[in-house]
Design goal:
The protein is of the alpha/beta class and 479 residues long. Helix content is 51%, strand content 12%.
Length: 479
């Protein structure tokens, strides 16, 4: 996240600022994206009519009326997308936002079209099947285009296939810059010069000379990357001197300040504040998440019932003991519930001495090793989801003794209970799956869980479920 710094446009220190080529590049990308959308919607409208007529009546009709309908829908859709700046290159990177806008604006354009049809009483001339077919083709075409842009535009910018803005990067003397340069490249920024600031640099008679020596006259903007909060005097001096130059300046923070400014912003009086801890989901969000949990868990239990029966039989034949393993876990707001799993070990630990499974753990049975690596042992937890103890997506619950241990070692650990625990989560699809032998590994899992809580949406839940199903073939960290 970048914070713009106010500029002082002193004419005596004006620098070269030729941005026409980048402005043209941005406009060109936006125009190309909008034009392709227009063509797709126009073609989908005509193709939908022809396809419907051919399937329903076996005839080839005149598509001219539907070309006119396509022109109306495409124009409304494009104007709506332009109104929210959705064709900017930076906006094209956000696949989630693009899909949300498509699913909002395309139905709105079609509803407007239907209103016009009813108003002019021409509904008898236009088969509803043609409109539905055209709408389906339009939606599919727009989504396919967004997937294309998402996969190719960022790599094209990274390869410098488009002109980029030239940047002077200013940072503390000890700060590594490789990740900053990589992120800048994906945003259309090319770091031409790097200037490192140390405490001793403040003794210079004029910082302006240092900026000029580091090529400020050759760049289009300045990016200040800062993480040395023990040396804020250097940052203040840097920003004060930069006000003399006619060049945009942005500040990117790292560390704890970077985490803070990435939170949702709101105004308190005339000050901007950043929310670091999201409150528990509101009534609407809880209802939406609960509806998804119930629908998904019922469907999963029905589809997976034969597999559950096979696993139960295999467990019973493989080793003595019950089929299910029941253990106490903490859920939403610290409430204790009994989690249900297929038994995968020869022990039933549920006390103050609970050890995580390790590689080649002798407690894991033969069937248990397979169902753990494939996550089949988690299937009974869909019953916990139906009961309301858990959610399909959320932070993974741990044994009570582990909660007590890590709660004392990791300050943010208890914040995981702001939502219901889940069968899978953001941490699990980002490499934090399986054993946590060190505090650092658990801390990484907690950071991912808190990010999920602060950024929850139904779309994010669907994404996590999809990625989880795809990544279940990776058994490296589960045993």
């Amino acid at each position: 996240m970048t914070i713009p710094v106010e500029q002082n446009w002193g004419p005596h220190l004006s620098v070269k600022s030729d941005r026409k080529w980048f402005g043209f590049s941005s406009i060109a990308i936006a125009c190309i994206a909008a034009t392709v959308d227009f063509i797709v919607l126009l073609a989908a409208s005509a193709a939908g009519h022809l396809l419907y007529e051919q399937i329903a009546f076996g005839t080839v009709a005149d598509p001219s009326l539907y070309v006119g309908i396509g022109l109306l829908v495409a124009t409304i859709f494009m104007l709506a997308m332009f109104s929210v700046h959705a064709y900017r290159p930076s906006e094209m990177f956000s696949l989630r936002r693009q899909l949300l806008l498509i699913t909002a604006f395309l139905p709105a354009a079609l509803l407007f079209l239907l209103a016009v049809i009813l108003f002019f009483k021409i509904n008898a001339e236009i088969p509803r099947g043609s409109i539905i077919t055209g709408a389906t083709l339009s939606l599919g075409g727009l989504i396919a285009l967004r997937l294309f842009w998402y996969s190719h535009l960022s790599s094209a910018i990274a390869r410098a296939a488009f002109p980029t803005r030239r940047v002077l990067l200013i940072c503390p003397s000890t700060m590594p810059t490789e990740s900053v340069v990589q992120r800048a490249a994906l945003s259309g920024l090319s770091v031409r010069h790097t200037m490192r600031i140390a405490e001793a640099d403040l003794a210079l008679a004029s910082m302006s000379e240092a900026y000029e020596k580091n090529g400020i006259a050759e760049v289009d903007e300045v990016l200040v990357a800062w993480s040395d909060y023990g040396n804020l005097r250097a940052l203040e001096e840097c920003l004060t001197t930069l006000r003399q130059f006619c060049v945009p300046v942005s500040v990117m923070f790292g560390g704890v300040v970077g985490d803070v400014v990435e939170g949702p912003a709101q105004m308190v009086g005339e000050r901007r504040v950043f929310q670091t801890h999201r409150p528990p989901l509101d009534l609407y969000e809880r209802g939406l998440k609960r509806a998804f949990d119930v629908a998904f868990s019922i469907a999963a239990l029905i589809v997976m019932f034969p597999i559950c029966v096979a696993v139960a039989v295999a467990i019973k034949l493989d080793s003595p003991g019950p089929i299910f393993f029941v253990q106490s876990r903490k859920g939403y707001s610290g409430r204790v519930f009994r989690i249900l799993k297929f038994r995968s070990m020869s022990v039933m630990e549920d006390s103050t001495d609970v050890r995580q499974a390790t590689r080649n753990d002798p407690r894991v049975t033969r069937v248990g090793g397979f169902i753990r690596s494939t996550s089949l042992d988690e299937l009974p937890q869909f019953w916990n989801v139906l009961r309301g103890d858990m959610s399909v997506v959320g932070p993974r619950p741990h044994a009570l003794v582990h909660d007590d241990l890590y709660g004392a070692l990791i300050a943010e650990y208890a914040s995981r209970r702001h939502v219901k625990p889940g069968l899978t989560g953001w941490a699990q699809i980002n490499g934090c799956r399986g054993e946590t032998p060190t505090v650092d590994r658990m801390a990484a899992r907690v950071r991912h869980d808190l990010w999920y809580i602060n950024n929850w949406s139904l779309w994010l839940d669907l994404k996590i479920v999809f990625v989880t199903m795809v990544s279940m073939v990776d058994r490296r960290n589960v045993y």
